[in-house]
Design brief:
Layout lengths: L2 H19 L3 H25 L19 E4 L4 E4 L3 E7 L11 E6 L2 E9 L2 E7 L12 E5 L2 E7 L11 H10 L11 H13 L2 H24 L2
Helix pairs in contact: 1-2
């Protein structure tokens, strides 16, 4: 058999093996085109040399992978124990994909989650500026039914009031200031107003009743002064 033809056939077999293992769209597209070029070149070479074409089963046509896009994870819940901060991310069917497709990279003040090829999409979440330092080497992730649990190991066993520094700064900015240099009652009124605005109906009724009773007592005291 023609030596050049043998080498072409070996190249073709190797390309087929690589195509089966490739996961990236661009790599698969390139290999798919190369496979077709080699098959055409082999057929032409066989015609030129008079070599009989090998009877082969038609190779399965491997379609290029559909373009996989990445969506950002915005919704999550978090909790904590003495040793860990736990972030819960709901992803339907995540337990059905290979565990290697769920990857988390930790630094001392951040983590980045990437879930690859879940329902035709990648899912990514990055949390920077964690409230306190964590231990990357002792942090991990667990895969549960429809949930990824990211476990950040605290460096010190202190309670976290917030998950990130940004969240803390935002919440602190929203807190009413108790201005002791101005009207001594202004700060308290701001606090009460915030509680009233954010409270449920029962809370609003309670505050309204307390305010009315306070005003009635104040007016009675003023009338007694006369």
């Amino acid at each position: 058999m023609d030596t050049a033809l043998v080498e072409l056939q070996k190249d073709l077999e190797e390309v087929k093996v690589l195509l089966q293992k490739a996961t990236r769209k661009r790599a698969r597209d390139v290999l798919f085109v190369e496979q077709r070029k080699l098959e055409t070149e082999i057929a032409n070479r066989q015609q030129q040399t008079g070599e009989p074409a090998e009877v082969q089963k038609p190779s399965a046509i491997v379609n290029p992978m559909a373009s996989t896009y990445t969506v950002k994870i915005n919704n999550y819940g978090w909790d904590q124990s003495d040793k860990f901060v736990k972030i819960y991310i709901t992803l339907k069917g995540v337990q059905s994909i290979p565990a290697d497709n769920v990857q988390v990279q930790f630094t001392e003040r951040s983590f980045e989650l990437l879930v690859k090829d879940l329902n035709g999409k990648n899912h990514a979440m990055t949390v920077n500026n964690l409230l306190k330092p964590i231990s990357p080497e002792n942090s991990s992730r667990k895969i549960k039914p429809d949930t990824v649990l990211v476990m950040c190991r605290k460096k010190s066993e202190h309670k976290w009031e917030y998950l990130t520094q940004v969240e803390k700064q935002t919440k602190d900015k929203d807190k009413p200031s108790l201005d002791t240099d101005g009207d001594p009652s202004a700060g308290l009124m701001n606090v009460l107003k915030k509680i009233y605005d954010e409270g449920d109906d029962e809370m609003k009724r309670t505050l309204t009743k307390a305010w009315v009773e306070s005003r009635e007592k104040q007016m009675k005291g003023e009338n007694m002064d006369f």
